[in-house]
Write a structure and sequence with these properties.
This protein is α+β, with helices and mostly antiparallel strands and about 250 residues long. It has 7 helices and 8 strands, in the order E-H-E-H-E-H-H-E-E-H-E-H-E-H-E. The chain has an 8-stranded antiparallel β-barrel, surrounded by 4 helices. The longest helix is centred in the first third of the chain and has 18 residues. The two termini are about 25 Å apart.
Length: about 250
């Protein structure tokens, strides 16, 4: 199954193009080292929460947007090898001198996919989510994700992926655990739905919420009051596969 390195990042709104250009330069190097796909998405429909939300997760300021991003690898071993190469490659040190965001507040970590359904052409809009999954509920999380994914595809989505924390470090300022206020034996889930456009996504959610088929999947194995989520426009989608080399 696909291995994911997931990120949530605060970026000044005024530096959107600078960030896109910086990520594009990094993508050239990362794809060379072994990443199979790199996607950067810009927060466009990200709600505020009463306890947790994407903004709080990275302590975003009023003049910052939140980005939901990920790298894809065939497995964790490839991810670890790529990270070793990054640390020893002077080109990444040069990129680090000119980052258009505050890396201290970015949250990141490695996630093992439990459900990966769909594929094909790259997306124009993404629903991203981070979840506090009930302890000892990995199988239930996988089964629930697999039950919901076909509904999204039926309503126009092109891919649905759900993953569980595998190598997610604690941070000094921010991290994924604090982002969803982890309690006890809970684990962190990371996932997304890829849509061709925001218009298709908005129409799909209207139909999904008006029906009862999502409820038929059963009670979700996570705490919905502390999940963080939002809609994101694709800023950069680079992949080793010819269909996904969108810039």
């Amino acid at each position: 199954m696909t291995y994911i390195e997931g990120f949530v990042t605060p970026v000044p709104v005024a530096r959107r193009e600078a960030y896109r250009a910086h990520a594009d330069r990094a993508a050239d190097l990362l794809l060379e080292l072994g990443i199979t796909r790199l996607v950067e998405t810009w927060g466009e429909d990200v709600p505020r929460g009463t306890r947790t939300d994407m903004y709080r997760a990275v302590r975003a300021t009023d003049d910052e947007a939140v980005l939901f991003s990920w790298f894809e690898y065939p497995d964790r071993a490839t991810r670890d090898t790529v990270n070793d190469r990054i640390r020893s490659d002077p080109r990444f040190a040069d990129l680090g001198q000119d980052m258009p965001f505050d890396a201290r507040r970015m949250i990141y970590g490695g996630f093992a996919s439990v459900s990966d359904i769909g594929g094909g052409a790259g997306a124009g809009f993404v629903d991203g989510v981070v979840l506090p999954v009930h302890g000892a509920s990995r199988d239930a999380y996988r089964d629930h994700a697999a039950a919901l994914a076909p509904l999204f595809l039926e309503h126009g989505a092109v891919r649905v992926i759900d993953a569980i924390a595998d190598d997610v470090p604690a941070g000094e300022v921010t991290d994924f655990a604090r982002a969803v206020a982890i309690e006890g034996a809970e684990e962190i889930g990371f996932g997304w739905v890829e849509w061709p456009s925001r218009a298709i996504r908005d129409e799909a959610w209207g139909r999904l919420m008006a029906g009862d088929r999502m409820a038929a999947a059963g009670d979700p194995p996570w705490n919905g009051q502390r999940m963080i989520f939002g809609g994101f426009a694709v800023l950069l989608d680079r992949t080793a596969r010819p269909w996904g080399n969108a810039r």
